[in-house]
Write a structure and sequence with these properties.
Blueprint lengths: L1 E5 L5 E3 L5 E3 L2 E2 L19 E5 L2 H10 L8 E3 L8 H7 L1 H12 L3 E5 L10 H4 L6 E5 L3 H8 L5 H11 L4 E5 L9 H7 L6 E3 L9 H13 L4 H8 L3 H13 L6 E3 L7
Parallel strand pairs: 1-5, 3-6, 6-7, 7-8, 8-9, 9-10, 10-11
Antiparallel strand pairs: 2-3, 4-5
Helix pairs in contact: 1-3, 8-9, 9-10
Length: about 260
């Protein structure tokens, strides 16, 4: 991956739900074939380090009209990307500033490394903090099948034991491929796990990548997924029933979840 340093004009990007998202880093090396950001130009192959994010975020938070709003980290770039945060520490610096301002924070991370555990003492001082761990990363699921531990699950459990509010997510569910049951079994039972269907259009780059992945790793399922992407009603109904069967027990729920205020 190529690393590019860049200064940005604004720290916050607003979602359609008026959520203030901050991305100290742009890009990802996980390589998930179902990634919703694959169609963004330049998403693959380059990491963007937003070098002035701390001062830009402080300017945003100092504005009276933004007083008290929750700050979200990681809409399309992991704020704890091990390749970047270990060296640049922009997420840490942003959180230190927000802790001094006592601003509510939500952090979304793939937790593909345990780097977030470095900041437990700081995280515990931030009011109304939530950490969302994304537990459907294929490399971590492969570790489970090999009898190893899932790093994201371990991180979630460690944060929970330290008193940090954690929400696990597992999306999308790929029947026959991604095993949310194994993740649920390894996750602390007190941590809620939110799951969701796969929302991918049949002619998209994501569909192409998923089919290519299945051809290589799960060839017996290729025909089934081809039917799914072709919107075969019976196959789509089968997928939906499977996902719904996993929810509403064992502290597992369908997305979306509600943020604490």
């Amino acid at each position: 991956m190529r690393i590019v340093k860049k200064e940005i004009a604004e720290a916050v990007e607003w979602t359609e739900n008026h959520e203030a998202y901050v991305n100290p880093y742009y890009g990802c090396s996980a390589g998930c074939p179902f990634c919703y950001w694959l169609n963004i130009p330049g998403w693959e192959g380059t990491f963007e380090v937003r070098t002035n994010i701390v001062s830009a975020l402080e300017d945003f938070c100092s504005c009276s009209e933004n007083a008290g709003c929750r700050i979200y980290f990681g809409s399309y770039g992991d704020p704890y990307a091990d390749e970047l945060e270990r060296d640049f520490q922009l997420t840490r610096q942003c959180l230190e500033m927000l802790q001094k301002m006592q601003r509510p924070v939500t952090i979304s991370t793939s937790a593909r490394s345990n780097l977030i555990l470095r900041d437990i003492d700081l995280l515990k001082q931030i009011p109304n903090l939530t950490v969302i761990t994304e537990l459907c990363r294929l490399d971590q699921l492969e570790r489970l099948t090999q009898g190893q531990t899932h790093i994201g699950v371990d991180v979630s459990n460690d944060l929970h034991r330290a008193g940090v509010r954690v929400i696990g997510t597992f999306a999308p569910i790929l029947p026959g491929i991604t095993d949310s049951v194994a993740v649920r079994a390894a996750l602390d039972p007190a941590i809620p796990l939110y799951i969701d269907h796969m929302y991918i259009q049949g002619n998209s780059i994501q569909a192409q990548r998923v089919i290519a992945f299945i051809q290589k790793e799960f060839p017996k399922l290729e025909n089934l997924y081809q039917k799914y992407f072709e919107k075969d009603s019976e196959t789509c109904a089968l997928f939906e029933r499977y996902v719904l069967s996993l929810a509403n027990h064992d502290n597992t729920f369908m997305m979306p979840f509600e943020e604490e205020t």
